[in-house]
């Protein structure tokens, strides 16, 4: 019998142009008390993160067969570290197994952010051959194939982790786009699962434009100049010569370099092939400068390396896109009679997919896919504002100069007829370009505010009012949330948690900026989680030392005795803090659950107390106590009931405190007993327990 999903008391959680490309769940652990160091190097941050994983394996759901490789590393000004780690299980990559280890300036472990629900335990011997999996993926691919490859992985993206073949079919899609078509094939059953394209493109027909007269940074070569920017990581713009590329699309050295004798590029019209090259090259500069000047990021991967752009890609190709495999942009010339896809916000959008790939690595499907797209829309817009070009007045419209109608409206995304302005349970099922509307709307509310302005007219989904905090603060909050707290499987609910944490980090828990983040999420129907501005989602410790071990259940069932399934991180329920909690009953049938732990109460305790947070959700009605939860103390053969709670008084998490003075000097068992009758489910959720001495 499945439990009834709580109603009314839970956070909402499920999670190119256009343009294409956990937060995971936080788990806390105690500080290890290492000596303070002023500011750690990235190498030291990684070393400390590895030590934290070894010391707190449950906090990252690590098994004895897991290994971790560092990806992005961030060290804050105060020395706090955030290390993104990729997970392997028995040598196989774990999709959805990435984790962020957050450490104090001393190197002491603070918490982790991850999407994995529990430690992995599965066999890694396939029953389905790679050849069979590849054949299936090839049949599913629409287009011209060039190469097929496969590798064994653990698919932990959703549901029960499974062994799978990740098959990649490279080629050219029917619309001339390069394609890296991925299919997950169950390695035991041969059934096809999740699919995605690792090349990300724009949606729609191009009506591109030019950026006008702009300065360009070039490189002197023999006989003249080349469109290569030595001041921005040697970012280069090349001519694709109306060809398409496969495999590493486009591969290094592909296309033709743009050279010129007088360092004047283009003539303002499409009669000169260098005109759109000037547009694209300016897009590289504008994107680099935004990330460098606003966020201190040196290039897309933060490694000082510039990106490449290829203009005149394909034959009348009406699209633009970012290819992370080859670390490059492509721009088509558009349909006959139209202009190319070389708009500033398009360039910023596409290259921001590379930033996402290098940091949170958000999946490109489900709610994380929508967040991936909205992140590119957000930063593409901010690149446009930062460039402040007279030829392209900054706004909150996406691709407005490519098409007669903007491709997306950030003030009210549903204006385009397909995008969502408000989150709902179907959001995860939409194309990422349409589910991105929730994130776009959130950002507009956060930056500009609700109601009418010179930028548009933005309604809220909850009828509330939001006062904007401006692009600078809103952009910095989103960037920190992306790079510090989001993982590949982050959903919109988890993005709310990530952005609240980011706002607390940057501006403080009581700041106007943090309050605006919460209101903006409310305004797009993404409900509150346990992380709030008021306290960052943490529970103030009770007075006196806590005698209970694993009091918040963050180490799973360790130190507790309980009925099967009681200690859980099931996202159908809701923790008071962290990710784990105890869920008693909720089956809607005759059932009894127990939860207990033994503890010794000192005879010297001044005023010993049992405290815990309790949430009661019920399908019962009226004031009759059909379903009950008893808080009890077992001493020897005697069981004393301290308090009884029932379906008659439902409500969200509330602190309960009970007197234990009668048990001084005794070793007793703290016990919770939940009893449910034969109909109408009642759930009792317990979290953040404590036995204190006073």
Automatic annotation (TrEMBL):
The keyword Heme appears for this protein: no
Domain Peptidase M4 C-terminal: from-to ranges: 360-526
GO biological process, one term: proteolysis
Composition-biased stretches (Polar residues): 240-249
Composition bias, Basic and acidic residues: 229-239
Domain FTP, first and last residues per copy: 67-108
General function of this protein: Extracellular zinc metalloprotease.
Name of the protein: Neutral metalloproteinase
Natural source organism: Streptomyces palmae
């Amino acid at each position: 019998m499945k439990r009834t999903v709580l109603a009314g008391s839970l956070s909402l959680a499920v999670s190119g142009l256009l343009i294409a490309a956990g937060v995971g769940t936080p788990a806390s652990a105690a500080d290890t008390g290492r000596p303070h160091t002023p500011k750690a190097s990235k190498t030291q941050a990684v070393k400390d993160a590895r030590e934290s994983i070894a010391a707190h394996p449950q906090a990252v759901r690590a098994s004895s067969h897991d290994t971790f490789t560092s990806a992005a590393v961030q060290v804050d000004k105060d020395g706090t570290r955030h290390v993104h780690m990729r997970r392997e299980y028995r040598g196989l990559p774990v999709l959805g197994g990435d984790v962020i280890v957050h450490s104090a300036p001393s190197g002491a472990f603070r918490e982790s952010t991850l999407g994995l629900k529990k430690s992995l335990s599965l066999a890694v011997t396939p029953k389905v051959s790679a050849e069979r999996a590849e054949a299936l993926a090839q049949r599913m691919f629409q287009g011209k194939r060039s190469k097929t490859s496969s590798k064994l992985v653990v698919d932990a993206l959703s549901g029960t982790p499974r062994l799978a073949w990740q098959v990649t079919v490279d080629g050219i899609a029917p619309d001339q786009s390069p394609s890296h078509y991925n299919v997950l094939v169950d390695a035991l059953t041969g059934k096809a699962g999740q699919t995605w394209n690792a090349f990300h493109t724009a949606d729609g027909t191009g009506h591109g434009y030019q950026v006008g007269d702009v300065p360009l940074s070039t490189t002197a070569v023999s006989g003249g100049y080349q469109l290569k920017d030595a001041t921005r990581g040697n970012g280069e713009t090349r001519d694709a010569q109306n060809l398409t590329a496969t495999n590493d699309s486009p591969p290094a050295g592909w296309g033709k370099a743009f050279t010129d004798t007088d360092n004047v590029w283009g003539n303002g019209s499409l009669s000169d092939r260098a005109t759109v090259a000037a547009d694209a090259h300016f897009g590289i500069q504008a994107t680099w400068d935004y990330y460098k000047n606003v966020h201190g990021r040196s290039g897309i991967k933060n490694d000082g390396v510039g990106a490449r752009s290829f203009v005149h890609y394909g034959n009348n190709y009406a699209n633009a896109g970012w290819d992370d495999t080859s670390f490059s942009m492509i721009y088509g010339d558009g349909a006959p009679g139209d202009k190319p896809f070389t708009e500033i916000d398009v360039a910023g959008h596409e290259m921001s997919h590379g930033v996402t790939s290098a940091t949170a690595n958000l999946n490109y499907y489900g709610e994380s896919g929508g967040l991936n797209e909205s992140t590119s829309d957000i930063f593409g817009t901010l690149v446009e504002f930062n460039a402040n070009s007279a030829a392209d007045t900054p706004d909150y419209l996406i691709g407005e100069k490519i098409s007669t109608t903007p491709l997306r409206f950030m003030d009210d995304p549903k204006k385009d007829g397909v995008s969502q302005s408000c989150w709902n349970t179907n959001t995860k099922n939409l194309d990422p370009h349409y589910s991105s509307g929730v994130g776009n709307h959130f950002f507009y509310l956060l930056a500009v505010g609700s109601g009418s302005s010179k930028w548009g007219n933005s309604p809220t989904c909850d009828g509330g009012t939001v006062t904007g905090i401006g692009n600078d603060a809103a952009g910095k909050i989103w960037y920190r949330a992306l790079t510090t707290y989001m993982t590949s499987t982050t959903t919109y609910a988890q993005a709310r948690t990530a952005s609240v944490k980011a706002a607390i980090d940057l501006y403080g828990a009581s700041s106007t900026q943090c309050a605006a983040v919460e209101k903006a999420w409310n305004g797009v129907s993404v409900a509150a989680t346990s992380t709030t501005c008021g306290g960052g989602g943490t529970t103030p410790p009770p007075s006196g030392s806590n005698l209970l071990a694993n009091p918040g259940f963050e180490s799973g069932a360790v130190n507790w005795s309980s009925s099967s399934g009681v200690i859980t991180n099931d996202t159908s329920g809701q923790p008071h803090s962290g990710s784990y909690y105890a869920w008693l009953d909720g089956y809607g049938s005759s059932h009894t659950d127990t939860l207990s732990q033994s503890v010794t109460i000192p005879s010297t305790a001044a005023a010993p107390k049992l405290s815990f947070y309790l949430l009661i959700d019920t399908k019962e009605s009226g004031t009759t106590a059909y379903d009950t939860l008893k808080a009890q103390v077992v001493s020897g053969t005697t069981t004393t009931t301290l308090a009884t709670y029932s379906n008659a008084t439902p409500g969200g998490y509330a602190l309960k405190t009970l007197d234990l003075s009668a048990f001084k000097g005794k070793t007793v068992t703290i016990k919770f007993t939940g009893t449910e009758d034969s109909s109408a489910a009642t759930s009792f959720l317990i979290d953040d327990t404590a036995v204190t001495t006073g």
